[in-house]
Specification:
Layout (H helix, E strand, L loop, with lengths): L2 E2 L19 E6 L5 E2 L14 E5 L6 H5 L31 E5 L1 H6 L3 E6 L9 H15 L3 E5 L3 H13 L2 E7 L4 H8 L4 E5 L3 H14 L3 E3 L5 H6 L2 H10 L7 E5 L4 H15 L9 E7 L4 H8 L24 H11 L2 E5 L1 H15 L5 H15 L8 E6 L24 H10 L1
Parallel strand pairs: 6-14, 7-8, 7-10, 8-9, 11-12, 11-14, 12-13
Antiparallel strand pairs: 1-3, 2-3, 2-4, 5-6
Amino acid sequence: MTASTSTTRDYVPSGPFAGRFGPAIALKSRETGRLTELGPFSIDPETFGPLEVAYDFGPVTRKDIEAGPASLWRYAPLLPVPRTAEERPADLSPGWTRLLKSENLARRLNLKNLWIKDDRDNPTHSFKDRVVATALAAAKTLGYTTLSCASTGNLANAVAAASARAGIDSVVFIPENLEQGKILTSAAYGTKLIAIKGNYDDVNRLCSEIADDRDDYGFVNVNLRAYYAEGSKTLGYEIAEQLGWRLPDQVVIPVASGSLLTKVDKAFQELIALGLVEAKPYRIFGAQATGCSPVAEAFDAGWDVAKPVRPDTIAKSLAIGNPADAPFVLDIVRRTGGAVAAVSDAEIVAGIRLLAETEGVFAETAGGVTVANLVKLLDDGRLDPDAETVVINTGDGLKTLDAIADHVGPAATIDPDLRIFRQTIAAL
């Protein structure tokens, strides 16, 4: 693994994988900017901090992107993947999900202009299909024969399904207390599903050890993390393109590891640098659950680093007590004038119901976190009700039915009798 202190512009790609990741030319330390060659690396050996992908983009126009497929691969010239479909493994072509104009929810909350980016439309019904697509392409390029992950549920679904489509083996690790729906929908794809006694952070520690022990396992969120995380940029790209090639004024994003929020910001910055959108101020807000809110607590306290917590929330897909990208989330929300807030489990359920009842969008618990924080941030005066706002729904409520099982159900149970129906409906 070679290193350089040069800028991206001056850097000359080297190593066995140079030229094999499309526009990506190096891995870069997120702390120091130091560049290293492309490869199966996720940690800078000097700072022990995370690495991310650095690029030398060629000319890219709106017309080029618009001519691409209705999937995240329309942005292949901006991702660390081979440029042509023939060079990538067979995949489920996620992305290009709906950006829904909200009328009813906006009216309920007195918001002037609200959009819902609805990632339920992805093949396994969450945004994780995006990150797995870029990780899978990297795994093939790097020679891994088994795809793996540590997961709070949605990633397990996405890795299992993508591996089945690509025809490669997969081994997926989850906490044993996940929602039953996510366990079953992962196992259905034929993956080797390993449940671990402990929380996500325990699972992640074990996977890091296995990644060091097995050279055939490509862990999408461990040794492939630098490439995997870039898939989240496509949410930011799509929001801008679907708004008519412009950036929104403010965005509310759920925070688990924090990678999604940081990559949406990275997407906006890349679009500005490439001249694909006009530069403008925008604000980014992070959303957590109070049962696992290390980033929100750090933001409120003015810290630069989040203190690890033990998760205790119904929002299991966000239950990461030691989020890897917390310092970068804090940097971004402060730079953009945003905030990170948290809501209770009761507020999460209310958020799920509010979105479903007003817009017909049934979100999983992470979506409930986002909507409930939208309400809270408006009530606190931190969100501008007159600004164009986008909220991101990352997954489908059918995966987390347990969260609302005690809160919704039949309004009445009656005999098949017209007279009884008339009496009942009049009383409801």
